[in-house]
What does this fold into?
Amino acid sequence: MAVDNVTFELPRAALVAFLGPNGAGKSTTMRLLTGFLAPSAGSARVCGLDVEADRVGIAKVLGYLPENGPLYPDQTPAEILGFLGSARGLSRGDLAARIDAVVEQTRLGEVLHKPTGKLSKGFKQRVGMAAALLHDPRVLILDEPTAGLDPNQVDQMRHLLTDLARTKLILLSTHILSEVRAIAQRVLVISRGRLVHDGAGDSLGRNEREMEEQFRKLTTPKAA
It folds into this structure.
């Protein structure tokens, strides 16, 4: 889905929900912000860096968790994190410390040395989250981070995101309105490639029913 003049500016630390129906342009926008796609017009900046002109700089300040992100099924989470940290140039000591930190944050200890291909979808999602956090980025872009998690894991992930948002900017794509109401400080809504709403975390409504009604009004095409 192409995006059309989607413009917003976000603070240094906050949890921002990015909503929209399937095909609205959410994933395209995220890929533009991470440098996975090049814009045909306009520009994107993250932490003052131009995404298209400074890919190396962007990679240092940004962590990205795509929906159903690819992992190496024959490698263990420990091996994946070690490889990614080495590729980023982390020293042996720094890498060991960062792996310990993200394993604790994402609660991967019990599966750290099991082949990733044999893990549940929820654990695979947590491996992807650990990889996104490994280099301690200033900005996190997360596409459906709670997909595949059980209720306890969802609660743990929400606590983790809330804690991280005290010092980092998190742009979170989700379809779960209760998640938005629980943790988001700001809400962006995109529909048919255009930004149709930008407001505070409670700006769509006081409860899930009101939020669903407002979401439908914002994203349902008007009759000709």
Remarks:
- The domain at 14-70+137-219 is CATH 3.40.50.300 (Rossmann fold).
- The chain has a mean pLDDT of 91.
- The chain has eight helices and eight strands.
- Residues 7 and 51 are 15 Å apart (CA to CA).
